[in-house]
Amino acid sequence: MDAPRWSALLTGWRAGNGPLYDLLAEAMRAGIRNGQLSPAEPLPAERALAGLLGISRSTVVAAYDLLEGGGWITRKRGSGTRVAAGAPRGANVLALRTPSVLAQGGKEFDFTIAVPLLHDAQRQKMREAALDAFEESLYYPLGLPDLRALLAEIYTQGGLPTTPEMVLITSGAQGAISLLANVFLRPRDRVLLETPTYFGAIDAFRAVGAETVGVPVTVQGVEAEAFAQAVQQHSPRLAFLTPTFQNPTGTVMPERARQRIAVTIADANLPTIEDDTLIDLGFEVEAPPRIATFAPDAPIFNVGSLSKLYWAGLRVGWVRVPVAHAGPVGQARTLSDFGSSLPGQHIALKLLQDLPRLRQQRREAVTVARDLLTELLCLHLPEWRFTVPGGGQFLWVELPTRQTSAFTLCAARYGVRLFPGASMGVDTLPDSFLRLPFTLDPARLPEAVLRLKAAWDEFQLRQGRERLA
C-alpha cells in the first residue's frame, strides 16, 4: 500500500455526520468519481487501511461492503479488492501531492504549507502600492516593465548579469515551473530532480506526462558526481535543483559542487531550473553564488518569488531566462494567460525597491519562529530528530516510525494538518519524515506542539497495541 498517497487521498474523510464506515465509503466514492481511483485499481487490504486510518478492521469491512453493494468495487478471493470496471467516474485526475485545501480560520494548525505572517502595516503598504496599477491602461504579458528592470538589476548586483528582457513575471514560482515544464517536456521525457524535493515541482512535471528521476540529497545537497552520473545514465530533457536552503531538507550546496554541476549542465546543454525562492532567507549561513553564475551561457533558468519573502497571497513570481531561450519561453508565457495581475506586480515593485530591509525583517521573524519551534520539539517530543537549518523555513524531521503517513491522519483529529515527507520523494522514500515549516504565528506554536504531542502519544499507544495483537 502506498501510504502517503492514501493518506493524502483520504485527508478529511471523517468530516461530516454519520457512522465512520459510511464516511469512509463516501470518501472512496469521491475518489472514484473524480478519477483519482481508476477502474480495476487495487485497493488496500482491510487490515492495512485500518492501521493507516487508526480505525478498526470491522469499520473498513463495513465500508467495503457498502461499496461492493453499490457496484463501486469488486472483491475476489486471491486477487483482493479492486475498483469496479464499470464504476461511475470522471476524467483521469493526477494524484496531486500539492495541498489544494488549506486550513480555514484559527481552529486548525496548518503545517502543510509555509505562509509568512502578514501584519497591519504590511497590509497598508500593499493597499497603497496596488493603487498605482489603476494608472495603467494596458496589460503586460511578459510582466510590468519597471518590475522586470528592477529584478534584472537585483540579479546583476548578485553576480548574474541580466537585462530586463531576460526576466518574465509569472503567477508565483509555481507558475514559472509549470511554464518551463510545458516548454521543455513532452510525455515520457525524463526530468531530473533532487529527492526529496518540492512537491509542486513533482506535480508540475508529472502533469505533462514526464518521468521523474531522483538524485538523492545528502547533508550538502545533491552531489556533483551523482548529478553527472544521472545525466549520463538517463539523458533527461530537464533538471530541477534547489541548491540554497533546499526544500525540504534545508541543505546548502557548496560552491565547488555548484561549479561542477554548472559544467555538467553546460556540457550536456541540459535545460535546468535553479529554484531561488528561499535564497534570501539565510540566518547563520550566507548563500554561495548561484549555479548559473558559473555557466552564464548555459540553459539555466532561475526562478524566484515573493511568496516566501513576503506574502504567498501576492502570487508574484519570476524567471530569469537565458537570452537564447527568451523568444520561445516568452511566447509560451504570453499564451498561458496574457500576464499576471497588475496590482500584485505594482505591490512587488514597491516591496523589492527596499529589498535589503525586506530581507532583514523576514529573516528576523523566521529566526524567532524557528528557534521557538525547535525548543518546543526538544522539550515535548525529544525522540523526533532534526538538524537545525541555517536558513530557509523548514525543519526536516525524522520520526521513530515507518508509518508517518498514518500519524498525519491521527494528528488531523487533533486539529493539526501535516504533510508526510514520503510524498516529497521522487522515488521511494522511507515513511519516517515530516516537513514542518516554522512560519506559524509564534503565539500559536506552543498549543500546536502540545497537540502534536497528544497525537503522538495516542499514535504510539495504538502502535503498541497492534504489535501485541
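(the above was protein one; protein two follows)
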Amino acid sequence: MINKKINSTFSVLRKKNKSAFIAFLTSCDPNFSTSLKLLKALPKAGVDIIEIGMPFSDPMADGPVIQRSYLRALKSGCTLIKTLELVKKFRETNKQTPIVLMGYYNPVLQLGLKKFFKHAKESGVDGILIVDLPPEASEDLLIEASKSNIDLIRLATPTTNKLRIANIIKASSGFLYYVSITGITGSKINKLLDIKKSYMYLKKYINIPFVVGFGINSTKKASDISKYADGIVVGSDLIKEIEKGVKNNSNIFNNVIKLVKKYSKAINKKKI
C-alpha cells in the first residue's frame, strides 16, 4: 500500500519540476526538546520530507558524525518509544509533512513488530527504512507496514544489479533511496557522472521516486544531483552543526536552520 502523504509530496514537486529536500536528524539529539524544536522548524525552512534516525548502539552503516549523534541521543535517554513520542508531538502542529524513520532492525524487533507499527501509525509515521534488513528477510516487516499504511523504503547501491533491483522494488514503496557512496554515511560521494549513470539505469526498472543520499555534504553537490534526482537527503552536514553547538555551547537551533535554508535554496531549483 502506498502512503498518500509521501506520494502526494513527490507528485506536487514533480508538477513544479523540482526535487524534494529530505533532511535527516537523529531523534533526541542532543535532547528531546531541542530535537522537537528543530523538527518543527524544518518545513518552514524549506524541507519537504523529514527523516528521523532511530538511535542504536551499533550503527554499522553510519559514519562517525551520525554514530556520535546516536550516542548523544542515547545518553539523553532516547528510546524507540521516545522517538515515536517525538513524532507524535510534531504531529500536534504539523499534519502534512511526511515523516520517515530510518535505522536498524534490532530496536524494532526488541519492541515487537506489531507493537512498533501500532505506535508508529498512531504517532503519524509515514515511512520506514531499515538499513540492515534485506528484502529476502523482511516479509513480516512488509506485512505489518502495509497493514499500517506505512511505506517500506529500500536502499539501492552503485553495485545493485538488475535482478537485485527487481527484488527490491517488489517490496518497496514511497521512494528508492540510492546510496551515492560505497562506504558509510558522510563518506566521499561518488563522481556525479557515475551517479547520473546509475540514475539512468535504475529509472528503467523503478516506478517510484529516485532519492539520493549518503555523502551529500555541500550545497553544490546537492544542487548538482537535484537536477535529475527526485529527492536529495542531507544528514551528516546538519548533524555536524548540532555537534559543534554542543561542543562550543553555541546556538544549535539557529545554526542548523541557517544551513537548512542554504540547502533548500540549492535543491529547490528547476530540474533538467
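Reviewer note on protein two: The longest strand covers residues 20-26.
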